[in-house]
Design a protein that fits this description.
This protein is an alpha/beta fold. It has one domain: Rossmann fold (3-Layer(aba) Sandwich). A 5-stranded mixed beta barrel has the order 7-12-10-8-13. Strands 5-6 form a two-stranded antiparallel ribbon. A hairpin with a 2-residue loop joins strand 11 and strand 12.
Length: about 290
Amino acid sequence: MIQSSELILNPDGSVYHLNLKPEHIAHDIIFVGDQNRVEKITQFFDSIEFSTQKREFKTQTGIFKGKRITVMSTGIGPDNIDIVINELDALVNIDLATRQPKEKLTSLNIIRIGTSGSLQADIPVDSFVMSKFGLGLDNMLRSYLIDEVSNLEMEDAFVQHTNWDLRKGKPYCIACSEKLEKIIESDKMHKGITATAGGFYGPQGRVLRLNIQDENLNSTMDNFKFGDNRITNLEMETAAIYGLSALLGHQALSLNAIIANRASGTFSEDPYKAVDELITYTLNKLANQ
């Protein structure tokens, strides 16, 4: 039995941080970072059956073209992803009454829809990026046993290419779900490696009043290649989503609307339009699967 200190439940039986019970979530789940973006997706739904919010975790479940879908905000960063995916998995794969893992496990479909800046000059603003791999620079996933799901060759190649300081922890690399990639892919999608940082400023090479450990990291990352894959963008969730999903047996895919290009210094003239186009495209693909 899983102890109450390890799997914490609220007085009403819902999981502690998400404030959800098993019946509240669908098999297909869309992640967004910003709680205000949840309704930017569910505004396209035919109906909404459930809505709740606790802290930065806002959840709505409803119907889109006959398909039951849950939309959830995760907040920012890999630490939040650790909470969200572990608690979602508990909802479907642990009997909350007996605190025992179920014999028959459920695999969720998890798609992240986010915004990001491109690191490559030829990936313009208002385009879409599908993360073929998540490259974790954050070290969160190293708390788990990940060798069976990570790409050790890519990790070692990245460490060598960037002269990575291992005092920051070894980067990890996890592939997306091939199943979801086939459902969602189109000619509009750029594909590559999405780097996941553990912070917004220093960990992404931004300098305000503090010097950073490696001021050349971003430019070195820009020209890293592994096979046909290069680093397309930098954000704060994808690798953690891929890693925990792979370990727990869920399918995960991360999509980003590119609203800035850090190589050219440009920003989208209408970022909301790009995000709405990615949302409707993804919803229609899910509804038709």
